[in-house]
Amino acid sequence: MSAERPFVANKYTRFLAKVGHGDFDPNECWVWLGAGKGNGYGHIKTDSGTTGAHRIAHELFIGPIPDGMDVCHTCDNRGCVNPDHLFTGTRADNMADMKAKGRGRGPSGVRKHLKEHIWQEIKRRLAAGHSPRKIANQMDVNYGTVTAIRGGRSYVGLGE
Ligand SMILES: [Zn+2]
Could you tell me where the beta strands, DSSP code E, fall in the chain? Predict the structure, then answer.
């Protein structure tokens, strides 16, 4: 083992210092504790102006945001900066997603708007040997959805 290196603050640690992330549990929301924009989104001042904390989280931990894309939340928590809860979509996607979630909250809403990341998580849990029933209960999705994914259905075929 190499000698312990001194702690050096960098863009990641500076960002995370303002995040209430518990133990970095990927299933929990990491709540931005810094300034907010008054609309629920956290904000950060950068060289080019003020931007959403969730957008910075995406750039730091996932990668650059494609031009014109919004960073959306799978958890519906605007103050959340957990990269596992973020995905990029067009402005229209984001609006449609918010509208749909507003219409149908709860398990049916989750099932109806099963996103690729949920599909991936279900695949991961299936590969890890979890039973479809357990996955369905834990992830609040339809049992039939889990078995369909086990049978090879893509998330595209599971929408709407
Ligand atoms: Zn979240």
Answer: 19-20, 31-32, 43-46, 49-52, 69-73, 86-90
Q: What distance in Å separates the CA atoms of residue 39 and residue 110, rounded to the nearest whole number?
A: 23
Q: State the distance from the centre of ligand 1 to the C-alpha of 43, rounded, in angstroms.
A: 16
Between the CA of 5 and the centroid of ligand 1 the distance, in Å, is 32
52 Cα: distance to centroid of ligand 1 (angstroms): 14
Summarize pLDDT for 65-89 with one digit per residue, the tens.
Answer: 998 889 999 888 889 999 999 999 8
Centre of ligand 1 from the C-alpha of residue 156, in Å: 23
Note the CATH architecture for domain 1-103: Alpha-Beta Complex (3.90)
Spans of all domains in the chain: 1-103, 106-160
pLDDT in tens, 81-134: 999 999 998 877 777 777 777 654 444 444 444 566 777 888 889 999 999 999
Contacts of 35 (CB under 8 A, 6+ apart): 42, 43, 44
Ligand 1 geometric centre to CA of 79 (Å): 8
How much is the pTM? Answer: 0.57
Residue 3 alpha carbon to ligand 1 centre in Å? 36
